[in-house]
Design a protein that fits this description.
single chain, mainly alpha, two-stranded antiparallel sheet
Length: 86
């Protein structure tokens, strides 16, 4: 439960800040991508960067989690082998 609070509370706060920022910034700006130029509102651009940052963070955490689970399986296998050898 505590873990849920520490994970969800910052996400909710960030979401509320993003909504407030979007409500106050409706200006349209020109964003120059590598292959094209697009007219996007500041709120949309901020939401896009927030989502991309969230996905990058999620992928990096999943990679670390996968490596830790692999190490745990390897250590459990070594523990079983050492107990059976003794």
């Amino acid at each position: 439960m505590i873990r849920f609070i520490f994970v969800s509370l910052p996400l909710i706060v960030l979401f509320l800040i993003a909504v407030a920022f979007g409500a106050l910034n409706k200006q349209v700006i020109a964003v120059d991508f590598i292959v094209a130029q697009q007219q996007i509102s500041v709120a949309t651009l901020t939401a896009l960067f927030l989502a991309v940052g969230f996905l990058i963070g999620l992928l990096s955490m999943l990679g670390a989690q996968w490596m830790l689970r692999r190490d745990i399986r390897k250590l459990k296998k070594q523990l079983v082998n050492s107990k059976s050898a003794a």
